[in-house]
Structure formats: structure tokens, C-alpha cells
Amino acid sequence: MIIVREEKLVEKKEHPLIVSVSPHVRGEETVSRIMWSVNLALLPVFIMSVYYFGPRAVYVTGLCVLACVLSEYAFQKWLRRKVTISDGSAFLTGLLLGMNLPPGVPFYIPLVGSVVAIIITKQLFGGLGYTIFNPALIGRAFVLISFPKLMTIWYKPTSAFVGLDATTTATPLGILKEGGLGQLLEIFGDKMHLYEKLFLGNTAGSLGETSAIALLIGAGYLFYKRYITWHIPLSFLATVGVLAWIFGGKDIETGKLIFFAGDPLIHLLSGGLILGAFFMATDYVTVPTLRKGQIIFGVGCGLITMLIRLKGGFPEGVMFAILLMNCFSPLIDRQVRTKPFGAVGEKKK
Amino acid sequence: MADIATFERGIHPRYHKELASGKPITQASLPQRIVVPVSQHIGAPAKPEVNIGDEVKKGQLIGSATGFVSSPIHSSISGKVIAIADFPTSAGKMVQSIVIEGDGKDEAVEFKENPDYMSLSSDEIRNIIKDAGIVGMGGAAFPTNVKLSPPKEKPVDTVIINGAECEPYLTADHRLMVERSKEVIEGLKIIMKSLGVKEGHIGIEENKPDAIEAMRFAVSGGSNIKVWPLEIKYPQGAEKMLIKAIKDREVPCKGLPMDVGVVVQNVGTAVAVYEAVRFGKPLIERVVTVTGKGVNEPKNMMVRIGTLMSEVIEQCGGLVEGAVKVISGGPMMGFAQWTLDVPVVKGTSGILVLTEDEYVASDDYSACIRCGSCIDVCPMGLNPSILSIYAEKGFFEDAKENGLFDCFECGSCAFVCPAKRPMVQFIRLAKSQVKP
Q: Which residues, in sequence order, are bridge partners of residue B160?
């Protein structure tokens, strides 16, 4: 083949055209839109936390958010990397960490938790997309283990926006663990009152975990936006519910285990379960990507949660359950595969 | 929903068909000069049969097929061969091309007509199609006669005409179905005859109600051809997806439609087949949609093969201020052009011009956040997320084990990716690094 470039044959025109690989149109979804939407979904939860725990809620959460965003900024500046604080993910970590702390913690707990969450758990692993563990939960686990006393002082919620009630108390799960259902009912009156308070959030607990209704509104928004699917939350909650029903029942007098007599609703509505199942166990980066794997993940979270709640030393196990299952995410993703189109080669006639 | 067929997953991009869907096909003006690449199809390039200085007529053979999977090329104007050399093509490569300077007379060779074309034998039909240089006109440009020659062990029982036209913006097939529905049907009948097949289908996305109506009208009269409205979903027009939607058969991995007894042909191809078999006309022109916000007057034009894109765009009022990207084909799978001096070839279904505000930079991407959106849309049921990560890290063998070569690069994953990762680019990189 003779290669003759006849430049004059085809008239040269200068077009500053952009060349790139297809596709040439893109959807509107962006990482930062997703992250800010999740932040928005936590707004009702935050409002309820302020309602019940007053200015302390703003103080603790604000510290977390500020510390998370600043440590991400500082770390990325230091490494001369692109600063990504505007994508909303550091803000979200801070918000989630705040929602997971008791209202009365001293200022250094949010700070330490945030630095551990952002620098150690997120940035040292490579930043958004590369984390193995949920940053907010590692931050919380770190401060829980480092300051066990301070992290387990719970305050009674007060009525509307007043501030912290000085009365400390145990969380419903704590009472259930120590004193059993009998004592829990003694405090709350009857089961309906208990459910009602758990549902609205008028119980002691971490800032954002108490109000089931606020959490469900936020989760509903995420479902509506299709940012989360049912797979993890449902399998997580269902496992907890079933296990609570089977193994959660105790004879009030003797404390002996009675099978199939537990109250699933108490376990479902209390502690950090709803917050964890809808907002933490659905963190894209640290959970399996395939739907089948997500169900395995959810069931695993439920199992560990109930194992800790019923048999472990802590009254609550959601945090450790999610963190432990985070370890398995890569393994689950490796074992579960999608079914490619035409893989079986079956011919339907 | 009873009669609306589709496949699993897929995406819903904005279609923007309204820019050109109402524009009847107009004849492009006679080009002064054409550049005809010897390789416009999948397979062996054609061998030039003319020399510099030769006079040629419209429809004259200028390059012959060089094997079974190959296709001849013809001149689309009358004039003189002035160069045989490498020129850029719309696929981004330099390809040997025959350049013909027109004499303005537009004299044609004599075409061999067949008024009684339905009495031709299968072999006769295949030979006419081969000699006419007909290739798949949906974009892939696979020689049509090869598709019509399935081996004995793979009996074909169904022919599907692909009128889905799922690529956003493009309306060429739409217009053909509206304006030349009878010819599409005749083309289909000829293809069915050559394959000895009794069952014919036409799949059309629901966003072309006038095309569905026209085709239904054209087939009315108790024939064995059925028109299927399809869900508006990309990539509905991919062969495997179309077969799944209409016949509920899954082409096996690495397989061909004929493995499940189906042959799929594009609307434009059906018309070209009809014209070749009935009138003896080789494939020397095709309908091209010139569209996008970056072009002044979007049009559907009958353009002669070899006409330079710059000339076609000129006839559509030229580019607007702020046009930044010119694409040969549709926005999902088309090729971005670095120069407009490339010829329209047999597989050029559209010329799309995007403006600055439609253009999305893909160089600014971030790490995969493993949201799984791509898995939810991949029509091939793959895990594009992991493929892109393997390719990014250089684990090409792992990518291969995860179905790399089942990917046909439809771009759905890249479309939905919130991290704006260049998924198709990653996948092509991996494909280039390992053997299938």
C-alpha cells in the first residue's frame, strides 16, 4: 500500500473538537449529589435529636461535622491531593458520628472520633471508595473503647428543645439486659407506652438513634431517590426480628429462656438498629455491591447484633455487627457473582 | 403492558429525537468529491479495482471483496479517480481510500432489474446482496450476505428487523419506516426467502408511534410478519436484547444470534436489500441523521457514501457557536471526530453535534464508590464496577474471568456512574491487553 498523504485533497479546517471515548452523554447522578442527599435524609433525625436533647445535640453533632470536614481538608492539603470536602462525604461521616454519640460527651470525644474516622479509617486507606470499614462507626468504636465510662452515660430526653435533663438513666436495651423485660415495663408503664416512646424517640440513647419515626422518614426519602435498596435493611431487620422472637423471651420470674416468646418490636425499635440498618449498613463503599451478597451481609449483621444483645457484654451490638460484616464484604463480593446474559445457554423455544 | 416487549435492566437516557424525527428524508446535494474507504465493514478490506486517472460511473465497482467476510465498494458519483491513499475515517483510523473527483454528470452504470425478485433462489439473492456491497447499516457494518449464510448445524427460523433505534438523537431508521415502510417489508421478505424462514418480526421502540402504525399498515393482509412495540429503553436495539425481547431467547455468551435460530437486520439494511435485489442498485447511499443542538438545521438526509461530513454539515446550516463535539453515530456508542473531513460510510447512521452545555467531561472521575448502579443497568448482567477496577489496576486476566468479553460496550454503566468513571475506556483497555 502506497501511503500518499495528499494534504491538499481534503481541505484542512481547524475545528477545536473534543475527542473522547463513548458514551458522549452522561446521567445526572454524581457522588456529591448522593452524599448530600443522604445528609438531607438525616435532617429529620437531627431535628428530633435537637428536640429531645436540646443544644447538646447541636454542639456534639456540630463538633463532629466540623472536625471531620477539617481533618479531611487538612490531610488532603498536607498530601497535596485534591480537596474533596465539597462532595459531602466527610460531612456525612461527621453527621453520622454525631448521631451515634451520647448527648453528654465532653468535647474531645467528638474530636477524637472524627479524626479516627476521617484520617485513619478513610484517608489512610485511600479516601472515598477505598475504605474497608464504615468510618463513622470506627470513630465511634474507638471512642467507646477509649472512653467506656463517658460513652455509656445516657440522659433522659426532655420535652421540646429545652436542653439536657440532668437525670441519667440506662437505655431501654441496657435495662432489658440488666433487669429484663419486667423492669423495662415497670419504667415505661405498659408495652404500648414503651412502643410509643421508642417509636417517637423519647428514650435515652445516642443522639440520632432513638427516634424510629424520624429515621424511617429519612430512609423513605433514600428509597424514593433509589439511593438504597431493600436488600440490606430488610434482611438485617428481619434477622433481628426473627432471632428476637425465637431467643428473646425470658420468664419474668426466673429469667429462664423461653423459645418463641420474645418481643421482636422492642428489639427492632430500640438501640441503633434502625439508624444502622438504613444509614450505616447501606454505606456503598463498605458493603457488598451485588444484591445477593447484600442479603448475606444483612443477615450476618442481624446475627451478630442479636448475639451481642442476647449473649454479649454490651447491651447493643449494631455497631460491632456492621463493622465485623464490613470485613467480609470483599469476600462476599468474590463469592457472589452476577448471572451474565446467556450464561446458561438455555434455549427457550 | 401485554404487548410491549423488552429485556432486563438497561437505562433511560434523554432521547432528544424531536430534533430530527419530524424531518422527512431529503436528498443531499451531489458531492463534488468522494472519499471511499476500502474498509467500511467488519472483515477483510476490499481490493481497489481502479487506478488513478480512471473514469468511473455511479454504481461502478471500485473495490472487490477479498474473502467470504468482506464486502465490495462502489462509486456513488461519476467522475475520475484522483487518488488512492490513506485518509482518516470516522472510526479514528487511517484507511486506504479511493478518492473520486466528480464530473457533475452523475452518470450511472446500468443496474440489473429483477421485477420478479421473489422467484429468485436463495443463492441468487445472497450473491446479489454480496455484489451490492450490503453490510449491516446499524453501525457495526457486518457483511449482510454472511449473516444470510448460516452453517447447516445452525438452522435459522426467525428474522427480526431492528427498528428499535435506541440510540438517542438518531432518527434515520424512524424516517425510513415512516416513509418507506413497503420497502422495509419487501426487504424483510427477501431476507426471509433467502434464509428459507417463515417467521418475520419488526421491533420498534414505542416512541415512534407513526413508524409502528406505518409498519403495521404495510404488513396488514395476513402475512407472517409481526410488528412489536418495544419498551423505550437503551440498549433495546442491541441484537441480543432485541432477540430476548421479541423471542425470549438468550443468545449464549460468546455466541451469535444464529445460535438461537435468529437473524437480525437493521431497517436500513432491509431497504438496501430490497433496492439491490429489485433494482440492482448497489449500496452507494444511505440515510444519515444530522442532529444535535450543535447543528443549525437538524435533518435526515440521503447521503452518498464517501461524502465528507464537513460537506453534509454544511448542508445543514453548519455548526453553531459553541459546538464542541462531533460524533459519528449516536451519543452512546458513536465515535467522536477530530476532523470533519472524514467520509460518510455504509455504517454511518448519524452525525451528532453536541454543544458545550451537553458535553460532559469524563477526564475528571473519582474512585468507584461501589454503589452498584452499573450492575443494576448492565444489559449483559455483568459487574462493570469490578471490570473497571480490575482494568484500572492492571488485573486484566481477572477482568477476563468476570465476563470482560461479553461486554459489547453499550456504555450504560458509564452513563449511570455517579463517579463519572470512563467505564468503556477501562473495558476497552482491558480487552486490548488480554486475548479473548
A: B201, B264
For residue B96, what pLDDT is reported? Answer: 95
Average pLDDT, chain A: 90
Q: Could you tell me which residues come within 8 angstroms of residue B48 by beta carbon, excluding any fewer than 6 positions away?
A: B38, B62, B63, B84, B96, B98
Please state the length of chain B. Answer: 436
Round to whole Å and give the CA distance between B236 and B233. 6
- The answer to whether A31 contacts B339, with C-beta atoms less than 8 Å apart, is no
Q: Do B273 and B127 belong to one domain?
A: yes
Picking from B246, B279, B312, the residue at the C-terminal end of a domain is B279
The dihedral built from the CA positions of residue A295, A296, A299 and A304, taken in this order, carries a sign that is negative
Instruction: Give CA–CA dist A251/A225, Å, rounded.
Output: 44
Contact: B337, A19; criterion CB under 8 Å: yes
Residues 328-347 of B with CB under 8 A from A: 331-341
pLDDT of residue A251: 79
How far, CA to CA in Å, does B238 sit from each of A341, B147, B200, B267, B410?
13, 16, 18, 13, 8
Q: How far is CA B5 from the centre of its chain?
A: 22
Residues B377 and B270 in one domain: no
A5 confidence band (pLDDT: 50, 70, 90): very low
**Interval B192-230: pLDDT, tens:** 999 999 999 999 999 999 999 999 999 987 679 999 999
Write phi, then psi, for B234 (nearest 5 degrees).
-90, 140
Nearest 10 degrees: Cα torsion A113, A45, A30, A222: 130
- % of chain A at pLDDT higher than 70: 92
pLDDT band at A246 (very low <50, low <70, confident <90, very high): very high
| Ramachandran angles phi, psi of B34, nearest 5° | -125, 150
Which of B85, B240, B248 is closest, CB to CB, to A6?
Answer: B85
Nearest CA in chain B to A26: B415
Instruction: Please give the residue of chain A at the shortest CA–CA distance from B12.
Output: A27
CB A305 within 8 A of CB A241: no
Contact across the interface for A341 and B14, Cβ inside 8 Å: no
Are the Cβ atoms of A291 and B372 closer than 8 angstroms?
Answer: yes
Contacts of A346 in chain B (CB under 8 A): 250
Q: What is the pLDDT of residue A15?
A: 52
- For residues A175-195, average pLDDT: 88
Q: Is the pLDDT of residue A16 over 90?
A: no
Q: Tell me the chain A residues in contact with residue B99 when contact means C-beta distances shorter than 8 Å.
A: 6, 9
CATH code for the domain in which residue B177 is found: 3.40.50.11540
Determine, yes or no, domain membership for B149. yes
For residue B11, CA distances in Å to A282, B173, B333 come to: 23, 21, 14
Count the Cβ atoms, other than its own, within 10 Å of residue B27.
10
**Cα–Cα distance, B97 to B305 (Å, whole number):** 12
B415 within a domain of the structure (yes/no)? yes
Contacts of A242 (CB under 8 A, 6+ apart): A264
Total domain count, chain B = 2
Task: Please choose, from the candidates B282, B280, B288, the residue with its C-alpha nearest in 3D space to the C-alpha of residue B329.
Answer: B288
Contact list, B84 vs chain A (CB under 8 Å): 2
Q: Which residue ranges of chain B lie beneath pLDDT 50?
A: 1-2
| pLDDT (0 to 100) of residue B287 | 96
Q: Which domain holds residue B246?
A: 17-21+113-279
Q: What is the edge-to-edge ordering of all strands in the sheet holding B199-205?
A: B225-230, B199-205, B158-163, B262-266
User: What per-residue confidence (pLDDT) applies to B361?
Assistant: 65
Question: Is B255 in Cβ contact with A341 (below 8 Å)?
Answer: no
| Closest residue to B415, CB basis, from A27, A129, A349 | A27
Nearest to A17 among B326, B379, B382 (CB): B326
Q: Write out the H or E segment, with its range, that includes residue B36.
A: strand B33-37
Considering B237, B256, B279, which residue would you say is the last residue of a domain? B279
pLDDT value of position A11: 45
